[in-house]
Amino acid sequence: MAASIRIDNLTKQYRGTKVASLKNLTLQVEPGEVYGFLGPNGAGKSTTIRTLMNFIQPTSGSAQILGRDIVTDSVAIRRSVGYLSSDMAMYPKMTAHQFLRYMSELQERSDTKYQAELIRRLNGDASKKLGDLSRGNRQKFAIVQAFMHKPDVLILDEPSSGLDPLMQEVFYDLVNEAKSRGAAIFMSSHILSEVQKICDRVGIIRDGELIAERNIADMERDAAHTFEVTFADKTPVKELERLRGVKVTSHDEHHATVHAQGELPPILAVLAKHTVVQLEARQLDLEELFMQFYSNEGQQ
Amino acid sequence: MRSIVRWTLWQRRWSIFWWSIGITSLVFFTMVFYPTIRDQAAELNKSLSLGSGTEALFGGTDFFSPLGYLNSQLIYFSLPMLLAILAIGLGTSLIGREESSGSIESLLSRPVSRGRLLASKALAGTITVFIVTLISSLVTLLMCAVVDLGIPYGNIVAACFACLMLVLSFGALAFMITSTGRGRAAALGITIVYAFGGYLIGSLTNSVEWLKHPAILFPYHYYRTADILAGKFEWSSIAFFALFILACGLIAWLSFRRRDIV
Fold first, then answer.
1. Nearest CA to CA, how far is B168 from chain A (Å)?
2. DSSP assigned state of B76
3. Rounded distance, CA A131 to CA A182, Å?
4. Which CATH number fits domain A225-299: 3.30.70, 1.10.1390, 2.40.50, 3.90.1690?
5. Inter-chain contact B105–A91, Cβ cutoff 8 Å?
6. Using CA atoms, how far apart are residues B35 and B145, in angstroms rounded to an integer?
7. Which ranges of A112-264 would DSSP assign to H, the alpha helix?
8. Can you give B174-204 as a three-state secondary structure string?
9. H or E stretch at B55
10. Which of A107, A261, B138, B254 has the lowest tally of Cβ within 10 angstroms?
């Protein structure tokens, strides 16, 4: 199956700047996949998203959405794309209802029943003027306008910012529903727990370069085979390291972090020979991965 | 395209209303006093001889004959200047405000080409200026009938049409500058200098010989309302305005279609 979003060596350098904001970015998002795009402010996340939406022009490289070029076919692409930014500027003097009607008219392919359902689920009051709404309440309607036409691709720039925890859950449900009907979702976020919860894959961008891509399921599997072990007596480092596929990633006198690949019985047999005070299977911690990549920055 | 035009006009409905009220009041109060002046027109013209230079600033006619009064007090200066403020304001804000507020992203994230967006906004602006000019023209015609000015209505309509084309030229220039990505303040400043500078240069060409050459670059040079009110309508002037507006539109489109929206 062809990728819903395909980016090849995309580079963007703004006029008058010496450094490119985006350097040879290459990635793909498959249909039915949620791709989390991580990076601190200024890393190039929004530049990538704005280039995909054709708000800004790439300096070199190319990208396709649903097989169409983002520059030459941008109008056709936007029939099947939902876009949302963190603090989307809407028209403050319009009511939310008027704004959604305006956007629906422009979208050509809108489902009014689904739109009403989205408003109900997000608990929005569409009769109020957008300028009178709080940021979180405005964000609800920004979500509605992005999802209302059931797009095949969703491009979301920090989509849940401003939402309260209950509404964040509703938003995650909407993302999962879009995913299950085969939509590809490309989202940037600062909230790592959110990315961990809803994304299938993450890409980490630093200074405009994609420095890592990880599959969340693989990371969870790896994390599940990492154990924090506390011994009553001295840590049996050599004994553990003799085992095939076992690596002691850190240790001190009574404690070891052990990563095991493959079968677990051999390691359990070694542990059984010693007095284990505590044994914990490690949880996936995306923050750790994120910090790991960003802490390298100082060393480079 | 229809949606953007409709919603833009809806957003500007109160602006259209208040501008219409304002300009209608100007026309009404300018014309309502003419009957008191008319009886003394000949004497006033004799006693208030301002010289050709000053007269040129008000359309090159006397101030108190029916044609001179309508031209100098309304059609040559006040009406186009007020309508120019409206048109320039629209020109700087139709795309400029959407861009500075960020709401342009909502529009461009829909299947709307940049050319279509630009054309829709330009059409909405043109309709706004047309509505206000039409109301002003109708009130002018009505007041001319009430005070029995004796100028053929066709000539007044033609002068108002020339006024519409003139102010649309200024609006088009402001629209072009904002569409190329210059700020709204820059567009406002440049257009005001061009409009008012053109007015001064165009008005002074009879007194200052060498100004005749640069004057041809400014729309005001082609705005000869005294001639139009006297029945000498020149389509070549209208053609200049139309070409100027089209050129601005073309430059706006060429620049806007591929530039970064930042």
1. 26
2. T
3. 35
4. 3.30.70
5. no
6. 12
7. 112-121, 135-147, 165-180, 192-198, 216-224, 237-241
8. HHHHHHCCCCHHHHHHHHHHHHHHHHHHHHH
9. helix B51-57
10. A261
- List CB contacts (< 8 A) between B113 and chain A: 74-75
Pair A41, A27: CB distance under 8 Å: no
For the stretch B47-80, pLDDT in tens is 666 666 666 666 666 667 888 888 888 898 889 9
* Nearest chain B alpha carbon to A142: B106
CB B40 within 8 A of CB B48: no
In a domain, B262, yes or no: no
pLDDT recorded at residue A299 = 44
Q: Which of B106, B108, B259 sits opposite A90 (nearest CB)?
A: B106
Does residue B76 form part of some domain? Answer: yes
Least Cα distance to B156 among B166, B145, B165, B167 occurs for: B145
pLDDT more than 70, % of chain A: 93
Bridge partners for A27 per DSSP = A7
Name the residue of chain B whose CA is nearest to A145's CA: B106
Highest mean pLDDT among A229-238, A278-287, A291-300, B123-132: B123-132
Which class is domain A5-215? alpha beta
Whether residue A103 and residue B106 make contact (CB cut-off 8 A), yes or no, is yes
B102 neighbourhood in chain A, CB within 8 Å: 88-89
Determine the residue among A94, A102, A156 to mutate to test chain B binding: the one whose Cβ has the most chain B Cβ atoms within 10 Å.
A102
Residues spanned by the domain of B125: 2-256
Q: Does A68 touch chain B (CB under 8 A)?
A: no
Q: Which two tokens stand for residue A271?
A: 């542990």
The pLDDT value given to residue A94? 92
**B101, B112, B262 member nearest A89 (Cβ):** B101
From the CA of A151, how many Å to the nearest CA of chain B?
Answer: 11
Q: Scanning the structure block, which residue is given the tokens 């727990």?
A: A193
Contact B109 A83 (CB under 8 A): yes
Domain count of the fold of chain B: 1
ipTM value, please give it: 0.82
Give dist(CA A77, CA B110) in Å, integer: 9
Query: What's the rounded Cα separation, in Å, for the pair B257 and B180?
Result: 10
Judge contact between A99 and A130, C-beta under 8 A: yes
| B248-to-A76, B32, B133, B166, B170 alpha-carbon distances in Å | 28, 38, 21, 13, 10
Find the residue in B nearest to A100 (Cα). B106
Q: Can you give the pLDDT at residue A292? A: 65
Query: Domain residue spans in chain A?
Result: 5-215, 225-299
- Quick: pLDDT tens for B178-216: 999 888 889 999 999 998 888 888 777 777 778 788 888
Top residue of B105, B113, B257 to mutate, by most chain A CBs within 10 Å, is B105
Q: Do A89 and B107 touch (CB under 8 A)?
A: no
CA distance A195 to A212: 15
Q: How far off is chain A from B24, nearest CA to CA, in Å?
A: 27
Question: Would you say residue A156 has pLDDT above 70?
Answer: yes
Tell whether A16 is within 8 A of chain B (Cβ). Answer: no
